[in-house]
Amino acid sequence: MMAKFPRNVVLLALLLACAAPAPVFASSAAMREASQVLLGKGLAASDTNRARRLLEQSIVADPANAAALSALGHLYQTGGKADLARKYYGLALSTDPTEPSALFGAAELDIADGKTADARDRLRILKVVCPACSQTHDLENKLGSNATAPLSSHP
Hints:
Elements: H1 7-17, H2 22-25, H3 29-44, H4 48-61, H5 66-78, H6 82-95, H7 100-112, H8 116-129, H9 134-143
Helix pairs in contact: 1-4, 3-4, 4-5, 5-6, 5-7, 6-7, 7-8, 7-9, 8-9
């Protein structure tokens, strides 16, 4: 007997299974806008299941929405599902390697797994792309104030 899955989960699984670099998806402006609206609703939702569903819909509307992928990773991370969190952070970073929330969340998982060198690498990226972001400062605090050496002496 075949298991039944909600339609949006099946669609999301198909989209993620066929994941490719962002330019291949080339969502229309309307779909990107719809994805952003769904992302906002997902972030505002107080119910975890509703938030997950809205974030999944946001990703279906625009599979290259790194913020939505990262938000879904965070949802899974706070729910204690580290493997799923790592998966979605990885998808977010494959879409946008500088997505601050995905870098931070993945670094937190790295720290929990004892991979502080990987977390420091993510902090180095954050310091370059978003030195004023809260994620940069929070990760620096988690790793200690002298967590990283300068990347280069070049301007």
